[in-house]
Structures are given as C-alpha cells and as structure tokens.
Amino acid sequence: MAISEPDFYVAGEFYDPAREPELYAGVLGRRMLAFIVDVVLIGVFDVIAALVVVALGLVTFGVGWFLFALPLFAIVGVLYVALTLGGPKAATPGMRLMGLTIRASDGSRIGPILAGIHVILYWASISLLTPFILLIALFSNRKRLLHDMLIGAVVLNRAPLQATGR
pLDDT per residue over 4-22, tens digit each? Predict the structure, then answer.
C-alpha cells in the first residue's frame, strides 16, 4: 500500500508516478549505489581536508591545528552535497553515475541552499529516527525519503527527463 502524499500540488507540477512510471523505475536501488559512491568521494575529500589542516598546522607551528576543533568532516560533506546536488546538473557524482537527478516540486533544480538543507535533514532524520526511517521510501508512491518530502523534492531517472526536454 502506497502512502498517499498531499494533493496540494497543482496538476502537472509534480512528476506523476501513475502517468510517468519510467521516471521512478529502479530509483531506490540506484540511489543506494549512488550513496555509496558519494560516501567514498566525501571520505577522499575529508582526507584531503585533514591533510591540508595538518600541513597548515606545520607551517603555522601548530596554530593551524585548531581547525580540527571545527566539525571539518561535516562541513566537507555539506559543501560536497550543496555544490553538486544544488549545482547545474542537480545530482551528486554518484547520482550522475547512476543516471539520477533531483527536482523541486515545480520541476526546477533545488539550488545549493536547499541541497545543504536536504543533507542536514537527512543526517537529522537518520540520527533521531534511526535508519529505519529510510523504509518510508518503500511505501511512498514517488519513492521519496522523509527529507525529500520535507523539502518538496523528488529523485528521478535522468534519461526520461532528458528525452522529454525537461
């Protein structure tokens, strides 16, 4: 049984899973694989950021190491998502590799600020509600996760969108 999402969207604004099932075919599995790719890439950028801070600490005789007091790894993750998911391609590198994109309820790209909010809501939902909250996508007719619903976004297959010029 699918969760019926609110019908307050104007007809044609949101991508209808009943009229365009090809937009949602296989999205969940590829989204999981995209997540793994993105976690690896964020890990690489985290290592690079840590090495930069270590080098800065050596050059400044230890003063630069105070940057480790910042939530450096969270900052790198939010910037990664904000700049890629909120960028012109509207997808992280992992999502692009898997042929996915994200759109807002009006069909536009979500932009860097909303992309940053998206990843922070993801981390908050996982932390507060346990990873079982991800199971909501199995029952959502648009295959959306809680943080997608909160910002009014949907993850779609990129190829059918490009084929229709959207």
Answer: 544 434 445 468 787 888 9
Measured CA to CA, the distance from residue 84 to residue 68 in angstroms comes to: 24
Give a yes or no: residue 5 inside a domain.
no
Examine residue 127 and state whether it is found in any structural domain, yes or no: yes
Query: In this structure, is residue 94 part of a structural domain?
Result: yes
Query: For tokens 């998502």, what's the residue?
Result: 81
For the chain, what is the domain count?
1
Q: Is residue 116 part of a domain?
A: yes
pTM, entire model? 0.84
Continuous H helices in the chain: 27-59, 72-85, 93-97, 111-129, 136-139, 146-151, 158-163
